Amino acid sequence: MDSLEVAKEWIHPCVKCGACCGTYRVLFDVAELTDEAYKVPKELTEKVEGTTLAMMGTNSSRPRCIALGGQIGKSVGCTIYLNRPSCCREYKASYEDGQRNPRCDQARRGKGLKPLSPRDYADMISK
Question: Residue 22: pLDDT above 50?
């Protein structure tokens, strides 16, 4: 099996998770709404303080990002993936870059999911 076939079969763990989007506040600067930045859709945001915005749904005691589609722990996707805020772009799932992310582990546990391990990426790198 060549690497292209593996890439077609392998599914990133985040696509089956979404726990971070249903656990944490998504905060970013108003500048990320602009064409020069990420063009985060303004209608999906709310003002927090000063120039800080939050994605709707995440600034609450039971957060869930308004842009998260699907069922957490089953099949999810970001409905604004190409225009997501910088904090989402920078967030790494545990072992995605070879390092454990305690916040990922905490979010997954909070949703009844096991933390990720290097094994979750084995199919991607083994072939």
Answer: yes
Q: What is the pLDDT of residues 86-113, one digit of tens each?
A: 999 999 999 999 999 999 999 999 999 9
pLDDT, greater one: 123 or 49: 49
**How many CB atoms sit inside 10 A of residue 89's CB?**
12
Q: Is the dihedral of CA 49, 52, 56, 58 positive or negative?
A: negative
Please check whether residue 44 is in contact with residue 32, taking contact to mean a CB–CB distance below 8 angstroms: no
46 vs 16, 26, 29, 57, 102, CA distance in Å? 27, 10, 11, 9, 27
Separation CA 4–CA 77 (nearest Å): 22
Cα dist from 83 to 20, 43, 78, whole Å: 17, 13, 10
pTM over 0.70: yes
